[in-house]
Amino acid sequence: MNPYFRTPPLVINLIIINVLVFMAQVFLPSAAGQWLENLFALHFWQSSLFRPWQAVSYMFMHGSWEHLFFNMFALWMFGRILEYDLGGRRFLIFYFVCGIGAALMQLGVNWIEVGMLNRQIALQPALMSKLLYMIDVPTVGASGAIFGVLLAFGMLHPNDRIMLLFPPIPMKAKYFVIGYGVLELAIGLANPGDSVAHFAHIGGMLWGLLLLLYWRRQNRRTAGPRF
What we know:
Blueprint lengths: L8 H19 L2 H11 L13 H4 L7 H22 L1 H33 L7 H9 L6 H14 L4 E3 L6 E3 H18 L7 H24 L6
Helix pairs in contact: 1-2, 1-4, 4-5, 4-7, 5-6, 5-7, 5-9, 7-8, 7-9, 8-9
């Protein structure tokens, strides 16, 4: 059987961990669920709830069943191919670099947006609610790492066709990735501080690109596998 039709171990384990953590969020008593969010979701770096490990742990928490499903479906669909392409060790490094890079991008953009809102509140007091939202509401989800996986799939399989859901048309992977990245950037710039971490998605793609380019340069200098 073609290995691309099987799911390799790291992707399976990542999916299992994400599902188990979300089940804990949902089914534990509300106080325990809040404790998990306070401790492991990614909080704004000036918040009293911020902890350094949240740049990793936030990737395993999700805000809804739909959020979890679409992230895990994309991880299964593209991550299993990427794990075979890169090998288990590199795939795991890649996944966490993209996720942590997404967290750093989100924290940096939030810092800039909070600073801008602080300067505007004197003239527009109504912005206070938006400022408090940006400071108090944490970021959760594997989306930053998943966007890195999408970027890698588009680079390593540029001419493979992806069937879109809306609209249901096939598109080459390279155009899908470029279009999705541009769309996320445009929405993030047009709607700062909304409930979707658009710049975390961009951060995951950016760090994924940098790491792939670094590995490609390394491979040219060694006899190791090329991609």
